[in-house]
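To: structure desk
From: M.T.
Subject: fold request, one chain
Message: Could you run this one when you get a chance? Sequence is below, nothing fancy, just the single chain.
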Amino acid sequence: MAHDTTHAHQSNTKRIWTVFIILSVITIVEVILGIIKPEVLTDTYFVSLKLINWIFIVLTIWKAYYITWAFMHMEGETKGLRRSVVWTAGFLIIYLVFILLTEGDYVHEVMKRGQVAWDF
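Reply: Done. Structure tokens follow.
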């Protein structure tokens, strides 16, 4: 009982270029927004944070997800493994962002009211 182990090698050149282009476009959008800083995005606040910062957070998480999807080959894995990896990482990232924003806002408010000196 010999198994046929000859598989045709598939070129991933097109896939690599597609991933490269998608990640490059997202990065270019982030850089352009960081350079231009449109007033509508820097003057508008949503949940104690400027709208432009939320856009940066969302785009960065999107890039991280796509890198995981493409370079860790998650698209070819079982549904359960994909969910366990992506949902866990997603939850931890959202939790980290929440904690950082909450604590950062608290520290800023304490310093602004003059309760503690800006000595750090």
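Reply (cont.): Residues 79-120 form one domain. Let me know if you need anything else for the meeting.
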